[in-house]
């Protein structure tokens, strides 16, 4: 993926976040590829290798996600809301948005992901 804004206009923090986000995307794609291949493998030894490779990619994805969580407070907040809970994801979203979400507001809610943006 390329930059959507001129590279030279982006802050160093935005450039680093872009690197991490692209790496996360690539790692998750690799998880998917290895998972599909392992699912279809008929040779037990090959299946074990592919599962091992998939699991390594999961580790890499988790590392990128943790870096992003530490660097972007908005990601940290979202992860703290939705991860490691047994509650309904939909119920958590409704509680977080007062049951309204962003439906009908005309907003994509992109602004809340900018550091320092008014909410």
How is the secondary structure organized here?
Blueprint: H1 12-40, H2 44-71, H3 73-82, H4 89-97
Helix pairs in contact: 1-2, 2-3
How do you describe this structure in short?
The chain is mainly alpha-helical.
Strand content: under 5%
- Total of DSSP H or I helical runs spanning 4+ residues: 4
Average pLDDT taken over every residue: 87
Major sheet details: none
Q: Roughly how much helix do the residues carry, as a percent range?
A: 55-70%
The total of beta strands comes to 0
First CA to last CA: what distance? 28 Å
Main structural class: mainly alpha
Computed over alpha carbons, the radius of gyration is 18 Å
Can you tell me the residue ranges where pLDDT is under 50 for at least 5 consecutive residues? 103-108
Shape summary: flat
User: Could you give the order of the helices and strands?
Assistant: HHHH
């Amino acid at each position: 993926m390329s930059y959507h804004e001129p590279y030279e206009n982006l802050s160093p923090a935005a450039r680093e976040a872009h690197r991490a986000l692209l790496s996360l995307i690539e790692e998750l794609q690799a998880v998917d590829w290895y998972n599909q291949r392992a699912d279809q493998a008929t040779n037990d030894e090959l299946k074990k290798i592919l599962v091992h490779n998939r699991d390594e990619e999961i580790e890499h994805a988790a590392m990128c996600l943790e870096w992003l969580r530490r660097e972007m407070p908005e990601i940290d907040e979202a992860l703290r809301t939705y991860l490691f809970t047994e509650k309904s994801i939909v119920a958590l979203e409704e509680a977080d948005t007062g049951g309204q979400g962003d439906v009908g507001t005309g907003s994509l809610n992109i602004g809340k992901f900018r550091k320092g943006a008014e909410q």
